[in-house]
Design goal:
With about 700 residues, this protein is of the alpha+beta class. It has 27 helices and 22 strands.
């Protein structure tokens, strides 16, 4: 497809389209893909062009077509999102980024990988449904050219993936033409021999029944003409894959299958749909149980039509669909029609309800961590036929076939499912696992407390109900673990004749990496920490060896190895070094050796004098405590200072100085000097203080 052909195609349905941006995208894509080739040997850019052509046939907006032309540039060329944004704007960049992040499901049939990519696909589609439209067009062209891939297993894998995910997605947004083509192309690679047989048999049936089809069309047109009803009547042969599915479901041979031909009647208004149905049922006998009204009760993807099966001319079974011309366009092009009518304030707005199912799936995504489980739940949403039930107030709820009353409760609201103790169906008391029938009225009896759900997980059918039950059971397990953890901590503390008050337990938050009592109890209840460990963390002084003497530089030799006996030594000014800190000595003429912390900024001036540096270390046996300094920012509340000082004391630290540095209405800063044994000792104090909710920040100052 040449540049001018694409532009002419767009202008034919949207004359005001920006031609220049389409030309620019076409040229940019050609340049970036350069000499890249596809498996067919064609230039790679032929693929983005064909994707744009498919979307143009759906009459999509210019921005979507520009994205189609650029959708592979980020993944397959040197272009970046910033390049796309600077050249084509933020909206195009967002769409290209969304398509790129789907990472192409090809070659990733492993369940967890497929589920995760499918998860990204739905999230991206929920942010802008045009991403899904582009992805479907991308997959459609890839399937049209799949025969150029030599690896048969790879072709089959991609086809299975298309049949599992992309074809149902196309169906759920009402794009039945694309759905059917994706199914048939996949079928040709998965079961090529069966498809060839069915295709040949369909050709034979078409030849045999061509006269019958013509006769039925003629009779249908005549009966409508006689009743002065303006309409168009068309007969169509069903696709091989559709026939194959019917053969599988109905367990019939092809010769026994009577409904391989379908007839469609398109009229101008909804009232004419029902009038046409009356005309047909008045002329020929309708087969009981084969009538469906999807106009008054549309499918979840927005599909509307009347379906009926008649004993027609020459006693032939005749399947007939009756719909308006607009419904027919919706059926064929689905959600894409919304964009075609977007600027005309016509059609599309009500049709957006067809993508509400994506929001349901995103709801599952936000609360369900298991991706494989998510994929299976989502496939339930995609493949099941639907039934319709009502609340006592008449609200319609669409559910998959075989859904239960509990599914209904979760469909109305998650809490209603979690608190559903019993149900009434059509006024009669029923069990929550009862399967619903079309037209059932369901009343949910709500308990004041959450109900037992363990035995119901296998009975619900919808992804929303399954994920909600799994989440509820996990929450229940977590709650039980917290109760166990609390009991364990209370028992350990009681054995030491101590009370596990909030203020005391908060000292363990920092070392254990938790932020609340609830999380602490859960950690212990789950077995990731012990009650004894918590006790030792909040009362470490019980195990720490106490040092009575404090180090005073003037009259005690420095407990450091590596010093020269003939040179005096001292710690650098304003330093608060303690044993265990990494240290280094600097020889300063006429002053001796000054000991610095290895991270001190003062060492920068000696970088070019390596001969002045002396390697030092602390002695292994030290009998003195050293002063460490910390800077604490506290929330300005009553009792905060007591919480800090008691924590330091219980950790075996002795406060030698405390300075109020700054203060405002909400916070105040403290400088605290503490006598400690070594850096492990001060680090334990800092960790414990850092976990206290009353402390905004705490850090050690070394100098």
């Amino acid at each position: 497809m040449r540049q001018y052909e694409l532009i002419d195609s767009v202008l034919s349905y949207k004359p005001e389209s920006d031609q220049e941006v389409l030309k620019k995208a076409y040229v940019y894509g050609t340049k970036m893909h350069g000499r890249q080739l596809r498996a067919s040997g064609d230039p790679y850019f032929s693929h983005p062009i064909e994707v744009a052509r498919i979307l143009a046939e759906l009459k999509l907006d210019t921005t979507t077509l520009v994205c189609a032309l650029l959708h592979d540039t980020i993944e397959d060329t040197s272009a970046t999102i910033k390049d796309i944004e600077s050249n084509f704007g933020s909206e195009v960049a967002k769409l290209v980024d969304g398509v790129t992040k789907l990472t192409l499901l090809e070659g990733n049939l492993e369940s967890s990988k497929q589920a995760e990519n499918f998860r990204k696909l739905l999230l991206a589609s929920a942010s802008d449904i045009r991403i899904l439209l582009i992805k479907l067009a991308d997959r459609l062209h890839n399937m049209r050219t799949l025969n150029f891939i030599k690896d048969q297993n790879k072709r089959k894998r991609i086809s299975l993936e298309t049949l599992d995910i992309y074809a149902p997605l196309a169906g759920r947004i009402g794009m039945h033409e694309i759905k059917e083509e994706l199914e048939d192309l996949s079928f040709s690679h998965i079961e090529p021999r069966i498809r060839d047989i069915i295709t040949e048999r369909l050709k034979v049936s078409k030849r045999k029944k061509s006269k019958t089809v013509v006769l039925i069309e003629k009779e249908l047109n005549k009966v409508f003409y006689d009743n002065k009803t303006e309409c168009s009547v068309t007969g169509r042969l069903k696709k091989p894959y559709s026939v194959w599915k019917k053969l599988e479901i109905q367990q019939k041979s092809l010769d026994q299958l009577s409904d391989i031909f379908g007839f469609r009647v398109c009229v101008n208004s909804i009232s004419e749909c029902y009038n046409s149905l009356g005309i047909l049922h008045g002329k020929w006998q309708a087969i009981p149980g084969r009538f469906k009204d999807y106009i008054s009760t549309p499918k979840k993807n927005g599909y509307q039509s009347l379906h009926t099966t008649l004993i027609g001319p020459k006693n032939q079974r005749v399947e007939v669909q009756i719909r308006t011309h607009k419904m027919n366009e919706m059926c064929e092009k689905g959600l894409a029609v919304h964009w075609a009518y977007k600027d005309k304030n016509d059609a599309g707005n009500d049709y957006l309800a067809s993508i509400e199912w994506i929001n349901d799936l995103v709801d599952i995504l936000n609360r369900d961590g298991a991706t494989e489980e998510f994929l299976e739940n989502t496939k339930l949403e995609l493949f099941n036929d639907q039934i319709y039930a009502f609340t006592p107030k008449g609200t319609l709820v669409a559910l998959p076939r075989d859904a239960t009353a509990l599914d209904f409760a979760y469909a109305v609201h998650t809490d209603l499912g979690n608190f559903c103790s019993s149900v009434k169906i059509n006024g009669a008391d029923k069990r929550r696992r009862t399967k619903l029938q079309n037209g059932d009225e369901v009343e949910i009896i709500k308990s004041k407390t959450p109900v037992a759900l363990e035995s119901l997980q296998e009975f619900v059918k919808t992804g929303k109900a399954k994920s909600a039950i799994i989440r509820s059971l996990k929450e229940k397990e977590t709650h039980n673990q917290r109760l166990i953890g609390k009991a364990i901590i209370k028992s350990i503390f009681s054995s030491h004749r101590k009370k596990p008050t909030r203020d005391i337990l908060e000292r363990s938050f920092g070392p254990l990496g938790v932020s609340s009592l609830v999380k602490l109890y859960g950690l212990v209840g789950e077995g990731l920490a012990s009650g004894s460990q918590v006790y030792d963390l909040v009362f470490p002084n019980n195990k720490r060896k106490k040092r009575i003497k404090n180090y005073i530089e003037d009259n005690i030799s420095i407990p450091v190895t590596g010093l020269y006996s003939d040179l005096p030594a001292k710690f650098s000014n304003n330093s608060f070094l303690v044993p265990g800190d990494k240290i280094v000595g600097i020889i300063i003429p006429e002053s001796g050796i000054t000991i610095y912390y290895v991270g001190s900024d003062e060492l920068l001036e000696y970088e070019n004098s390596p001969e002045s540096w002396v390697k030092l270390d602390w002695k292994k046996e030290i009998e003195f405590t050293f002063i460490a300094r910390i800077i604490v920012t506290l929330i300005n509340e009553v009792g905060v200072l007591n919480s800090i000082t008691s924590t330091i004391a219980d950790y075996g630290g002795n406060i030698s100085n405390l300075i109020l540095n700054e203060k405002d209405n909400d916070f105040y800063n403290l400088i605290i000097d503490i006598n400690v044994n070594d850096n492990k000792h001060i680090n334990a104090i800092v960790e414990s203080l850092d976990g206290l909710p009353v402390i905004e920040s705490v850090k050690r100052f070394i100098g």
